[in-house]
Design a protein that fits this description.
single chain; about 230 residues; alpha+beta; Alpha-Beta Plaits; 2 domains; 8 helices; 4 strands; elongated
Length: about 230
C-alpha cells in the first residue's frame, strides 16, 4: 500500500488525511444542500437527477482543486478540456454531465501523475454514485393521487368538495385553483395522500356522483415523470 500513499509525483506532496477529509466534507455539504432542495422545492419541475448531482458535484470539484494544487498550466489545460466538452457535445441529463466531469478530472489526475488522488477520488466517486443508484436517493412520493377537475358550482360551495376528499385523504393539498370571471366555478388540481391507496376507485366514484364535478382526471403519483 506504500505506492498508494506515496504515489504522488507532483511538486507538492499529498496529505492523504486532508484529502479524505476534504472529499468527505464536500459529500456531506452536498448531502445537506440536496436535502434542503428536496424539502423546499415546489412546482412540477422537480428532478431527481439534479438532486443527485448536488451531492456528487461538490466531491468532483474538491478533486479538481486537489489536482490543480496551484498549478497554472494544469488550470489552463482544464479550461481547454471543458471548452471541448461544452461546445462539441450536448448533454441532456445532469448526471451525464457529472459522469463526464468525473472522468475528466480522474484523467487529469492520472496525467499529472497524481495517482493517489486518481485512485482515491475514483473509488469515492464510484461509491457515491452506487449509493445514489442503490438507494434511489432523491425520489419522493409524498402523495398517492393527482386529481384535476372543474368545479361548476360557486367557489363558496367548495367546502363540500373538500369534505369529500378529506374523508379519503390523510393529507390533502390544493396545488392550483384557477377561476374564470365568466363562470362561477373554478379549475382545481389536488395532490392527495390516501388513507387506503387500494380504495382510490371509491373516491373517484364518489366524485363523479357529486353535483358540480366535471372534467375529472386522475393520475397515480408513480406515473408522474420524475427524471
Amino acid at each position: 500500500m506504500d505506492w498508494l500513499i506515496t504515489g504522488e509525483r507532483a511538486a507538492a506532496p499529498l496529505n492523504t488525511h486532508a484529502m479524505l477529509l476534504g472529499l468527505l466534507l464536500a459529500f456531506l455539504a452536498g448531502q445537506l444542500l440536496a436535502w434542503i432542495y428536496m424539502l423546499t422545492h415546489t412546482g412540477l419541475s422537480y428532478s431527481r437527477s439534479f438532486v443527485n448531482s448536488l451531492i456528487i458535484i461538490p466531491v468532483i470539484v474538491a478533486l479538481v482543486m486537489l489536482v490543480l494544487s496551484n498549478n497554472l498550466v494544469t488550470a489552463f489545460g482544464l479550461m481547454a478540456v471543458f471548452a471541448i466538452v461544452r461546445f462539441r457535445n450536448i448533454l441532456r441529463d445532469t448526471m451525464d454531465t457529472t459522469y463526464v466531469l468525473t472522468v475528466i478530472v480522474v484523467g487529469m489526475a492520472c496525467g499529472t501523475q497524481k495517482f493517489s488522488s486518481a485512485v482515491v477520488g475514483t473509488l469515492i466517486a464510484a461509491a457515491i454514485l452506487i449509493y445514489l443508484w442503490y438507494t434511489s436517493f432523491g425520489s419522493r412520493n409524498r402523495y398517492d393521487l393527482i386529481l384535476n377537475l372543474h368545479w361548476s358550482r360557486p367557489v363558496s360551495e367548495l367546502p363540500e368538495l373538500s369534505r369529500l376528499l378529506q374523508r379519503h385523504a390523510l393529507k390533502l393539498h390544493c396545488a392550483s385553483q384557477r377561476s374564470n370571471d365568466d363562470s362561477p366555478g373554478a379549475d382545481l388540481s389536488y395532490r392527495i395522500l390516501l388513507r387506503d391507496p387500494n380504495r382510490a376507485h371509491d373516491l373517484l366514484a364518489e366524485l363523479k356522483r357529486l353535483n358540480g364535478v366535471a372534467h375529472l382526471m386522475s393520475m397515480k403519483a408513480e406515473d408522474e415523470s420524475e427524471v
